[in-house]
């Protein structure tokens, strides 16, 4: 148990004088205790009555003797910038680690307590206030758990669980979007073998990236950070960490991390981060029939499948004690897409004339998106978007505060000056979907203007170029 911040500051100062690589991990429970708890994940306001499996902030701390780097992956649908910044402020004061050396991301489980208001789902302010200190506590404990370690990374593959969910509309086919427009040429989740669509609009990323650390003394596994470009799975009642939490448990079991020999040591922490999955999910709409699953069954299937790929990668790791860490952080100010005066007037009319359901919420998407237009009208014309690029030896890791389209992640992998790269989405805040310019031209759910998709159309290009420049800067410093 951590007694004082000064103890950790002393620990950080001591580490800075050492050349040996050290690592530590910790999983901090951040589950709500008050119910019913509001849950993100749909256009309606939903509430959880209890906990199916707990929410965690899973923390991995690395220290190369000069610099530290902390990864935190939170079981949340979305995590706002304010929560990330407050957690980093507290953790930085307690550990002495600079804030820009901390990455905090959300998994995007659709069955966790809400931290960010979106569509008709609001938050419980009392719960939101509890989360930053808990995340900071997890970071501090991971730092306290630092011990001499070895690090390695490798990439596996699992093409069986990822499918692009946006499909091209066939010539002559159309549908009406929530703005009364019928020109969209892409449709999300069109249904199995839909007659209206032809083929997916983009590829997928089948990589399962693995960054792992083990004790230098006895080679026991300390932590494993994986990255896979899958939106989420679903199927568990809230509160649930979805397949992200199931993966953490499964990979720990596969590595025998709970061996009785390690009972007096800090527990192994498995972590699954969300890659660039803004247009990718677990449903194959090219199949004529979808298998019916029991609640939670598909989560376990996906977790085992991806954990198996992660284990194969883990077994190929070339472990190293000589580790160098480096970080670049920058902030862009990007435009906000807002309704025109005419569109805003139409939105207000729809809100006044379209009736709500018996539960006091709108079921009609026109009214739901009309409300979003009114709320976005109060946004500033530009918003800050925080980007990070980290280097761990010859591996680079990017961080974007959006639901990033897979095409962007694939481009960053191709362009990286390092041996390999992966990108963590929904990191250090939330700025909605990040479609490519081509995706914007095609339309579809992910492009529809709302608090879930509001950045200027050229945002993807600007973000990608900035990250490529940051990676080049890290390469020059190598």
Walkthrough of the structure:
This protein is α+β, with helices and mostly antiparallel strands and about 475 residues long. Among the domains are: about 5-160 and about 200-325, no CATH class; about 340-375. Helices cover about 30% and strands about 25% of the residues. The chain is built from ten helices and 21 strands. It has an eight-stranded mixed beta sheet with strand order 6-5-4-1-7-12-13-14. α2 (about 80-95) runs parallel beside α3 and α4 packs across α5 (about 295-315). The chain is globular. About 50% of the residues are buried. The model is unreliable at about 1-5 and about 15 (pLDDT under 50).
Percentage of residues in DSSP E strands:
15-25%
Q: Any idea what the radius of gyration is? A: 22 Å
Question: Can you count the helices?
Answer: 10
The averaged pLDDT comes out at: 95
Distance between the termini: 37 Å
Number of strands: 21
User: What spatial order of strands do you see in the largest sheet?
Assistant: 6-5-4-1-7-12-13-14
The low-pLDDT segments are 1-7, 13-17
Relative helix content: 25-40%
**Spatial shape:** globular
The class by helix and strand makeup works out as: alpha+beta
- Major β-sheet annotation: 8 strands, mixed
């Amino acid at each position: 148990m951590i007694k004082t911040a000064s103890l950790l500051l002393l620990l950080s100062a001591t580490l800075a004088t050492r050349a040996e690589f050290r690592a530590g991990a910790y999983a901090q429970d951040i589950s709500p205790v008050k119910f019913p708890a509001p849950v993100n994940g749909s256009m309606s306001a939903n509430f959880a009555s209890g906990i199916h499996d707990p929410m965690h902030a899973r923390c991995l701390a690395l220290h190369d003797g000069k610099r530290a780097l902390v990864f935190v992956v939170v079981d949340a649908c979305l995590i706002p910038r304010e929560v990330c910044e407050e957690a980093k402020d507290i953790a930085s004061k307690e550990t002495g680690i600079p804030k820009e050396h901390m990455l905090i991301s959300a998994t995007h489980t659709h069955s966790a307590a809400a931290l960010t208001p979106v569509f008709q789902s609001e938050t419980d302010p009392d719960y939101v206030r509890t989360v930053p200190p808990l995340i900071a506590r997890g970071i501090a404990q991971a730092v306290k758990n630092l011990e001499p370690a070895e690090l390695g990374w490798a990439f596996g593959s699992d093409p069986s669980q990822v499918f692009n969910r946006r499909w091209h509309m066939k010539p002559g086919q159309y549908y009406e979007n929530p703005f009364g427009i019928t020109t969209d040429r892409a449709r999300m989740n069109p249904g199995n073998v839909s007659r209206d669509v032809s083929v997916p609009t983009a590829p997928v990323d089948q990589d399962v990236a693995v960054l792992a650390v083990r004790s230098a003394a006895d080679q026991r596994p300390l932590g494993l950070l994986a990255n896979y470009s899958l939106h989420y799975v679903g199927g568990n009642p809230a509160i649930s960490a979805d397949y992200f939490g199931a993966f953490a448990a499964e990979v720990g079991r596969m590595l025998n991390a709970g061996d009785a020999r390690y009972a007096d040591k800090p527990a192994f922490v498995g972590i699954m981060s969300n890659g660039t999955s803004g247009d990718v999910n677990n449903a194959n709409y090219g199949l004529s029939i979808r298998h019916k699953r029991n609640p939670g069954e598909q989560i376990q299937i996906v977790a085992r499948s991806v954990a198996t790929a992660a284990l194969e990668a883990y077994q190929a790791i070339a472990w190293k004690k000589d580790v160098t860490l480096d970080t670049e952080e920058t902030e862009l100010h990007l435009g906000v897409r807002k309704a025109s005066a005419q569109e805003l007037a139409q939105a207000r009319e729809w809100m006044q004339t379209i009736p709500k359901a018996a539960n006091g919420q709108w079921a009609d998407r026109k009214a739901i998106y009309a409300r979003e237009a009114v709320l976005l009208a109060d946004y500033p014309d530009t918003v800050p978007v925080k980007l990070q690029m980290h280097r761990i030896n010859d591996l680079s890791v990017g961080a974007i505060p959006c639901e990033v389209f897979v095409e962007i992640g694939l481009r960053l992998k191709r362009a990286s000056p390092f041996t390999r790269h992966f990108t963590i989405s929904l990191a250090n805040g939330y700025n909605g979907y990040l479609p490519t310019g081509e995706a914007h031209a095609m339309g579809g759910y992910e492009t529809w203007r709302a608090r879930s998709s509001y950045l200027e159309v050229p945002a993807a290009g600007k973000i990608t170029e900035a990250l490529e420049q940051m990676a080049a800067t890290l390469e020059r410093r190598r």
